[in-house]
Design a protein that fits this description.
The chain is an alpha/beta fold. The chain is 29% helix and 25% strand. The protein has a four-stranded mixed beta sheet with strand order 22-23-1-24. It binds ligand EPZ. Ligand EPZ binds next to α1, α5, α6 and α12. The site of ligand EPZ has 25 residues, from α1, α5, α6 and α12.
Length: 428
């Protein structure tokens, strides 16, 4: 097990280069199931979740070339080629799915291409129950036969038939699963109340490169015209907007002047709007944001409510909460997406934060000086928020269980050290 040791109150100066998006790379890899030809993905991040997806696909007989997992291979720009000619099973086993819910993304492609899939129900995770009922209802609407037993969902279909699907709530991976399934269905599939995240638009672009006919990705109505087969493609993974947002918040929290580059500011409008409201100076170009905060003055306390894209992302809620401990009054943070996404609060309290939680609302008192402590990561984005807290705190913070962090952030301690943070990974 490793921990991060952070000596706080060091201002940050320099440039952070953002890696490829985890939540774009995972569906991009699953989409390779839809074709017998090579799929080349460029700019894939080296993350534990990507390694898990590689393991899952290889377990099914898919050849994956060019990706070396593991922390030491922290090349920022790496490519992976996938080929399904060796496919021999159509199952996503519990031991892999329980570690990464996004394994469910193989469901739609498997049923569409092979007419069968057996995928472990993901079960809950730290941040919530994470059901996949909408994925299942969508596939059933496309004519698949679905049964659930012994913790697995079994799906079979002769050939999926296009249909109209209306999601009760926008689901990112649900939209991705049905969009992929619809590409090989007979006829037209319409998804209403679709998720609109940039990762959806990027997946639609990749599927189009593979020959699919898709309209409306990025809006709440997506239309997919099914065809008989898809061909291979070459695709660049879009920058990770959540990683970029995390470093933008870290720079505002620690102070200094930091350029966050290889990112798309247009994917961060909701965050940047709140940063401006909080009184943080920043400038932007097409592919970077520069954050500058020299003065020690308190920020403006602002209120946020997490909602589906393009509103404030739930994946930046924990990070922004840490920043609001530096507000000038009180900030109200409402989490509407997941039912248990405040686990970072207990750890922040140990560092002196004054935060009270009532159901899905956190009340964050400003004007707080955080102090270093021994704390524990609980889930991916909470762990990032605790690193930011360590950067701001007096003295030393030791953060354990950082395997959560490695799921979604490429060598965070190296990227932060490069801009002046006193942070190191220590084996325990
Ligand atoms: C995706 O998860 C992301 N993961 C999450 O990022 C992100 O937090 C989430 O979208 C919301 O933006 C990937 O893209 C791999 P949802 P997903 O389906 O698709 C409910 C990270 O930190 N729902 O959009 O699993 C669900 O309970 C991760 O990188 C159902 O009720 O989330 C939630 O309340 C964490 N039934 C809401 O919809 C379903 O069948 C949104 O969930 C599916 C979802």
């Amino acid at each position: 097990m490793n921990k991060l040791v952070i000596k706080g109150r060091k201002k940050l100066y320099g440039t952070v280069e953002i890696s490829g998006a985890k939540n774009a790379a995972l569906p991009a890899m699953a989409a390779a199931i839809l074709t017998s030809e090579d799929v080349h993905l460029h700019g894939v991040p080296h993350l534990a979740d990507v390694t898990t997806m590689v393991d899952l696909l290889e377990k099914m007989g898919i050849k994956t070339m060019g990706y070396k997992g593991g922390h030491e291979n922290n090349l920022i720009k790496s490519s992976i080629t996938l080929n399904t000619s060796g496919m021999n099973t159509y199952e996503a086993p519990y031991e892999l799915v329980k570690t990464m819910r996004a394994s469910v993304l193989v469901l739609g492609p498997l049923v569409a291409r092979y007419g069968k899939a057996k995928v472990s129900l993901p079960g809950g995770c730290a941040i919530g129950s994470r059901p996949i009922d909408l994925h299942i209802k969508g596939l059933a609407a496309l004519g698949a036969n679905v049964s659930i037993d012994h913790g697995y969902v079994n799906v079979t279909a002769k050939r999926l038939k296009g249909a109209k699907i209306v999601f009760d709530t926008p689901t990112v991976t649900g939209t991705e699963n049905i969009m992929m399934a619809g590409t090989l269905a007979k006829g037209i599939t319409v998804i209403e109340n679709a998720a609109k995240e940039p990762e959806i638009t990027s997946l639609a672009e990749q599927l189009t490169k593979m020959g699919a006919v898709i309209h409306g990705a990025g809006t709440d109505i997506i239309e997919i015209q099914g065809i008989d087969r898809l061909h291979g493609c070459s695709m660049d993974i879009i920058p990770d907007r959540i990683e970029a947002g995390t470093y933008i918040i870290a720079a505002a929290a620690a102070g200094g002047e930091v350029e966050v580059t290889n990112c798309n500011p247009r994917h961060l409008d909701a965050l940047l709007f709140k940063m401006k409201e909080a009184g943080i100076e920043y400038t932007e170009t097409d592919n970077s944001v520069v954050v500058k905060r020299e003065r020690e003055a308190w920020l403006k306390s602002v209120t946020i409510k997490t909602m589906p894209y393009p509103n404030f992302p739930t994946d930046l809620q924990a990070q922004f909460m840490v920043l609001m401990t530096q507000g000038d009054s009180t900030s109200i943070i409402t989490e509407t997406i997941f039912e248990n996404r405040f686990m970072h609060v207990a750890e922040l309290r140990r560092m002196g934060a004054d935060i009270t939680v009532e159901n899905n609302v956190a009340i964050v008192k400003g004007r707080t000086r955080l102090t270093g402590a021994q704390i524990m990561a609980t889930d991916l984005r909470a762990s990032a928020s605790l690193v930011i807290a360590g950067l701001m705190a007096d003295n030393v913070t030791e953060l354990s269980r950082i395997y959560h962090l490695d799921r979604g952030y490429e060598v965070m301690e190296k990227k932060l050290s490069k801009i002046g943070a006193k942070i190191e990974r220590v084996k325990v």
